Amino acid sequence: MSQTHHNQLAGPTTNNVTFRSMQVGDIEQICLIEIACFPTPWTADAFFNELEHNAFARYVVMTWNDIIIGYAGMWTILDEAHITNIAVLEHYRGRKLGERLLRELVVQAMGYGMTRMTLEVRTSNYTAQRLYEKFGFRAEGLRRAYYSDNGEDAIIMWAELPSSELYER
Q1: Which of 108, 112, 117, 145 has its CA at 20 to 30 Å from residue 161's CA atom?
Q2: Which parts of the chain sit beneath pLDDT 50?
Q3: Which residues are catalytic?
Q4: 59 in helix, strand or coil?
């Protein structure tokens, strides 16, 4: 069995996923991921507005065999990138794909000239916090009762972005 054929049978890996900009035609699939991943998912209208009316918004989809299995978004304002969302379908988790998706977002942010990156994460989401810490994010604040579904606090995390030459090695 060829390595390529074996990878297709084995499923997505950090080496066989691809990335592209999110398109309006992707919104239906993105909303299915939102519903599967988040207690208060964004609506199709919210994504449409991000893609069509927010000049600061940058969204990327992660595909495997032409299927969208994850996505991430950020706003790029001046020299700071604010991660709005990052999600991988549960069936594909545990393969370092969230890490690969975050790496793609960081590389794109650096390509846009961003020098810092921020995000909010649920205080209970230890898995995400550990992922962000791998990328140099550090807790620098708290937003009380940030999440409307249960009133949970959000940890505000920040990271300084390295130079793109250093990062892509």
Answers
A1: 145
A2: 1-8, 169
A3: 120, 132
A4: strand
pTM of this prediction?
0.87
Q: Which amino acid is located at 117 in the chain?
A: M
DSSP 139-167: EEEEETT--TTT---EEEEEEEPPPHHHH
Helical (H) or strand (E) element with 61:
strand 57-64
Phi/psi of residue 119, nearest 5 degrees: -165, 165
pLDDT at 13: 84
Going by DSSP bridges, is the β-strand pair 57-64/80-88 parallel, antiparallel, or unpaired?
Answer: unpaired
Beta bridge pairs of residue 82: 75, 118
Q: Taking the CB of residue 32, how many other CB atoms lie within 10 A of it?
A: 13
- What's the order of all strands across the beta sheet hosting 18-21? 18-21, 57-64, 67-77, 80-88, 116-122, 154-160, 138-143
